[in-house]
Specification:
By secondary structure, the chain is α/β, with parallel strands linked by helices. The protein has nine helices and nine strands. 37% of the residues lie in helices and 22% in strands. Strand 1, helix 2 and strand 2 form a beta-alpha-beta unit. The radius of gyration is 27 Å and the shape is elongated. The termini are far apart. The N terminus is likely disordered.
């Protein structure tokens, strides 16, 4: 009888979940360690795409707040190397990123996350009938470019040299947004910017393609920066850009894979 009672007791304990705490299975929700403000210094040509990327990133990491500083890459380099608290730097070219690397202000080696191409931007309707780079020297045509130190200016000069065209710009702007703005307002007949800038500007302007033989491929590198206070968050933002969802959003704005 004793043995029967012992067996019955053991069976009842098992049926009632009498396993010891050390072997019981428990599910612990995974915690999101990405939090706080993430300061991203990014080339002006990334404005529209990165704003969208930032919203998607914050939806994935609700405790994070991405703050963008958009400007010409050369201006951003000056700020970063003078101690501006950037967590991430995204440049529109390799030479400007290299200046930050050379100053010892990156945490890791930069990685290329996107590429771009040039396009001639003209007002909607293309009133001057511009068909290519050679038309930029037509009498009475007002052309503006980015300054030579700015990636879009450097790339534009390379494309013009390939085409054998020498343009004297009416002005030299500090970023692509300024070029697009002046063309859209009718202050210039044409400018040279990126394909993505023309697309982002919508119906106010239109683009004139530049043949591959004259065009220049622009690589976009990105890196975490030592001067920031949230390098972990910065790296998480970079990882998101490199992920399939991040790359898909960039493609929606006309960027290509590096």
């Amino acid at each position: 009888m004793k043995r029967v009672l012992t067996v019955l007791t053991a069976m009842l304990l098992t049926a009632c979940g009498g396993s010891s705490p050390s072997t019981a299975s428990t599910s612990t929700p995974s915690s999101d360690n990405v939090a706080g403000t993430i300061n991203v210094f990014a080339a002006a040509s990334l404005t529209a795409a990165f704003k969208d990327e930032g919203m998607a990133f914050q939806a994935k990491h609700p405790k994070a707040n991405v703050v963008f500083n958009f400007a010409g890459s050369a201006s951003l380099v000056t700020s970063i190397n003078n101690g501006a608290p950037a967590d991430v730097f995204a440049s529109a070219d390799l030479p400007n990123m290299q200046k930050v690397v050379a100053a010892g202000n990156t945490v890791r080696q930069p990685v290329n996350f996107a590429s771009n191409e040039l396009q001639i931007v003209v007002p909607a309707g293309n009133p001057k009938g511009i068909k290519g780079l050679a038309d930029l020297v037509s009498p009475g045509t007002v052309v503006i470019l980015c300054a030579p130190a700015v990636p879009c200016g450097n790339y534009a000069n390379q494309a013009l040299a390939k085409a054998g065209v020498k343009v004297t710009p009416e002005s030299q702007e500090q970023d692509v947004n300024a070029v697009v703005s002046k063309v859209s307002l009718g202050e210039a007949d044409a400018g040279i910017v990126y394909v993505t800038d023309v697309k982002a500007a919508g119906a106010k302007v239109q683009g004139v393609p530049i043949p591959d033989a004259q065009n220049v491929a622009a690589l976009y590198p990105i890196a975490t920066v030592k001067g920031g206070f949230n390098q972990e968050g910065g790296q998480a933002f970079i990882d998101f850009l490199l992920s399939a969802p991040g790359q898909s959003k960039l493609a929606n704005y006309g960027f290509k894979k590096p």
